[in-house]
Amino acid sequence: MQALTLCVALIAILMVPRESVAADCTKTTIESCEAECTGGRAVACHILGEHAESRAISFEVHEGKSSKVVDAVIMGEAKAHFAKGCEGEFTWSCYKLAEIDRPRRARWRNKGLKVDRRLCMREKQAFACSRMGLVYKEGKVVGRSPVRAAGLFDRACKGGEKAACAHLGVMLLDGDGRRRNTSAGVLRLETGCSDGLGWSCIRLASDYQKGVTVEKDLDAAERLLRSACKSGQQEGCVVLGVLLDKERRGGGSKEASELFGTACEKDVQSGCVNLGDLYESGRGVRKDEVRAAALFETACNRFVGGCLRIGRMYQDGRGVDKTPKKARRYFQIGCGNQDPNACFHLALAEKEGFGGAANPTEAAGRFREQCRKGRALSCQILADMHLDGTGVAKNRQQRKRLLRRACTLGRAQACGLK
Q1: pLDDT (tens digit, 9 = 90+) per residue, 221-263?
Q2: 3-state secondary structure of 20
Q3: Could you say which of 81, 177, 231, 319 would form a disulfide bridge with 289 (CB–CB 3.0 to 4.6 Å)?
């Protein structure tokens, strides 16, 4: 099972252009950030806000349900730091407040846009144009406008903002906001990759590996991913490892294990999960289910990733003692963090009473949601529940509709059922 794919377009959103940050002010040297924020450096205040926000959010399991818990006091600290950043015209802080401070959303959004419009249009600051481009491309705090986003990226690119050129390349490849232009899109992403924008390498490599927007070319994908990894982009190293392992390229699974191990040591949870996958199967390393379980558990407990994998191991008793209650708990945590596979296994556990009391009504709701999102097996299971009235009312017509949907979605076993 590959724990990671090359579908990583979101990395492009995360690698936002921003003013340079002092080398001694990072999330791991908070004391330095506090001193710089007090001294009026807005970007340092923003980093403090991000740090506080990450501490404010946790996940708890109560009565069979996983839910996000927000510490209001710590979140208040985060908002205060973001407010200082916004007042200092670091507009990412304004846009962040527009997301988390809903009562005053319009105020923070408008303040950020006002500053960026001035910097972009009147003061010709390319980074501000690029920043507004991302805001309109994402559509989180303003209505999504691909055409406006592409225009802003184009303006910023002509002003020398390298990240904006790469973002425009993505839009040209996808035909999003601009007419599709594959050659121009590839050129911009290749240039971004050469300029050290790791996410640019990863996005283009993804398309080459899958044959999306460009002709499939695994050599090109590997070249780009090696460039991303060399630039220090650990996510690129992980994706490179997945490619080497899956396609048996380069050093294959053995080289992949080294890449995953390094990423895991640097707190990249996808590296831990993928390394655990190798130890579980014995690809590139000596099979060691105990080590695999430890890696999955670490990923889940520290980074809210790998919860499904450790849950499965507690379910089957591989690498750990078989413990149904723990398995179900990890499925709950994974599901609470939007892992659809964890939700599926949680629904099965709730339906059968595995690791806790049976709750077929809750299970039916989860299967219904997954069926709606295109999971054929969930449609078939829910159809069977309508046959005998488990957690739902007996309803043969609804059963038929669900079986038809499962069949349409590719579940051959459902096609001949009535």
Answers
A1: 999 999 999 999 999 999 999 999 998 887 899 999 999 999 9
A2: coil
A3: 319
Integer Cα distance of 400 and 414 in angstroms: 10
* Phi–psi pair at 189, nearest 5 degrees: -70, -35
Q: Which residue in 17, 19, 13, 43 sits closest to 164, CA to CA?
A: 17
Which element (helix H / strand E) includes 59? Answer: strand 57-62
- How far apart CA 41 and CA 33 sit, in angstroms, is 9
Which residue type occupies 215? E
Cα 295 from Cα 311, distance rounded (Å): 12
Cβ contacts of 343-346, under 8 Å, gap ≥ 24: 343/369, 343/370, 344/370, 344/375, 344/377, 344/378, 345/308, 345/311, 345/312, 345/315
pLDDT tens track for 139-193: 999 999 999 999 999 999 999 999 999 999 999 999 999 999 999 999 999 999 9
